[in-house]
Write a structure and sequence with these properties.
There is one protein chain. This protein is of the alpha/beta class. It folds into two domains: 139 residues, NAD(P)-binding Rossmann-like Domain (Rossmann fold), CATH 3.40.50; 301 residues, Dihydrodipicolinate Reductase, domain 2. A nine-stranded mixed β-sheet has the order 16-15-14-13-7-12-11-8-17, sandwiched between helices. The longest helix has 26 residues. It is globular.
Length: 490
């Protein structure tokens, strides 16, 4: 693995003591330090409302690393170097206009790249950007990172984008979706455009349908306040799953270059078929989990979770049948599914090819199963191509499905950087290829609002499903009406 050392930078993390920072961002930066990518001058500055010292912040970060790093990854020597990079500045970004302490700290190295990571509520993005500008700490070498979701509808997304754009130019704005930093997601580009085997088949002549699933076993995990205002559609479909759909469905870009790839993704979003209220019953299922058992552990229903309105209509499960209305994909449905309290934690894309046109094998040879390509993003990153093969042995031909398995762990035998590790270094290097452009975000919201409007017009409650199941029975019926079934298992 090539490790290019980054240029000197300061990374200012707003929400520096929050869950995202302690669970993902700081461990990611620790790993980049461990692998020698952080320059000696790099500093990491945590910002939050709490009045505490840098020493207290360092202790908090150490505790977070010890909890979230894999066994053996916390090394005293690396930690000593990493801890020396840490600083802390208390700021109430809403109430305080005194940002002089941060300005003084950053002013010690005015020529450095400055990364402002906003791991906060999206409602604060505009305020923080304006405060940074007023404090005089923005520069031509500044970048700002916006966590999803950007807004809760099209109007709020546009407002946030306008507020941020009044301070930072579009090339300085990095709208992050960590799914795009996963090794397997990036391998979609290599799989499609570096192999003559697949690209000629990547169209409606040879592909029957595509399934995209992001399944979680967890519930709200103490984030009911956020989730009540979001739900599965805003939290997962509008960003993660639509971005995966774009990478599967996009046309070949002119080059592996950020604007070329973003242009092709935008074309897919603009080609998504409209969803109207009269289509909702046939194309959308939303659900809400009830009490049940996940992996043998009894869990409460969503309505019993702390902080949830007992009459809540927030969906914890969504599946949709989506059309991409262009020449390549006409007639090929894309089935999207995501939910909480499902039986397994996994994210995958499954491409089902059309059946063999003429079966030459005699009866009793075994069932002819259409080929399928399974691209697994988590928990283990792999690509499996399921083919038909002859079972070994005499006495005629007996067919059996057999997978060709590209397991990254087994093939490359090295640790793969977490998505945030790659994306944070891309921000420092001003490489926006794996980040969303403003028009992508707003076009995705424009389409997602059709689903929200259809729900509001229908006024239906989410369908209940038992925790530990694969969602409401209506989700199974949605795909089986088309003579297909959800992919489950290997």
């Amino acid at each position: 693995m090539v490790n290019l050392r980054a240029e000197p930078f300061d990374c200012v993390v707003f929400g520096g003591t929050g869950d995202l920072a302690l669970r993902k961002l700081l461990p990611a930066l620790y790993h980049r330090d461990r692998d020698g990518q952080l320059p000696d001058e790099a500093r990491i500055i945590g910002v939050s409302r709490a009045r505490r010292s840098t020493e207290d912040f360092i202790d908090t970060v150490q505790g977070g690393l010890e909890r979230h790093l894999a066994p053996g990854e916390f090394e005293p020597g690396v930690w000593q170097r990493f801890a020396a990079r840490l600083r802390y500045v208390p700021i109430d970004v809403v109430e305080s206009r005194d940002w002089s302490e941060l300005a003084t700290l950053l002013g010690e190295a005015p020529e450095r790249i400055r990364v402002f990571y906003l791991a906060t509520s999206p409602d604060l993005f505009g305020t923080i950007c304006h405060r940074l500008h007023e404090a005089g700490v923005t520069s031509a070498e500044s970048r700002v990172v916006l966590e999803k979701p950007i807004g809760h509808d099209l109007a709020s997304a546009r407002r946030i984008n306008d507020e941020v754009a009044s301070v930072f130019s579009e090339p300085q704005i990095f709208r992050i979706d960590h799914y795009l930093g996963k090794e397997t997601v990036q391998n979609l580009l290599a799989l499609r455009f570096a192999n003559t085997l697949f690209e000629p088949l990547w169209n409606s002549n040879w592909i029957d349908h595509v399934q995209i699933t992001v399944a979680e076993t967890i519930g709200t995990e103490g984030r009911a306040g956020y989730y009540e205002g979001a739900g599965a559609l805003r939290d997962m479909i509008q960003n993660h799953l639509l971005q995966l759909l774009c990478l599967i469905a996009m046309e070949p870009p002119q080059a592996v270059e950020k604007e070329a790839i973003r242009d092709e993704k935008l074309k897919v979003l603009r080609a998504l078929g409209p969803i109207r209220a009269e289509d909702a019953a046939a194309r959308i299922v939303r659900g809400q989990y009830r009490a049940g058992a996940v992996r043998g552990e009894a869990v409460k229903g969503y309505l019993e979770e702390a902080g949830v309105d007992p009459d809540s209509r927030t969906e914890t499960f969504v599946c949709l049948k989506v059309d991409v209305r262009n020449w390549r994909w006409a007639g090929v449905p894309f089935y999207l599914r995501t939910g909480k309290r499902l039986p397994e934690r996994h994210s995958e894309v499954v491409v089902y090819f059309r059946p063999v046109r003429h079966d030459i094998f005699p009866g009793g040879s075994g069932e002819m199963t259409p080929n399928r390509l399974v691209i697994q993003l988590q928990p283990d990153e792999s690509i499996r191509l399921h083919l038909m093969a002859k079972e070994p042995g005499p006495g005629g031909i007996r067919l059996k499905e057999a997978p060709l398995n590209l397991s990254f762990a087994e093939t490359f035998r090295q640790r793969f950087p977490d998505a945030y590790e790659r994306l944070l270094m891309d921000v420092v290097r001003a490489n926006g290829t794996l980040f969303m452009r403003r028009d992508e975000v707003e076009t995705a919201w424009q389409w997602t609002e059709q689903v929200l409007n259809a729900w509001n017009e229908k006024g239906d409650r989410p369908k209940p499903y038992t925790a530990g199941s694969w969602g409401p029975s209506a989700a199974i019926a949605l795909i089986e009406r088309d003579g297909r079934t959800w992919h489950e298992g290997a």
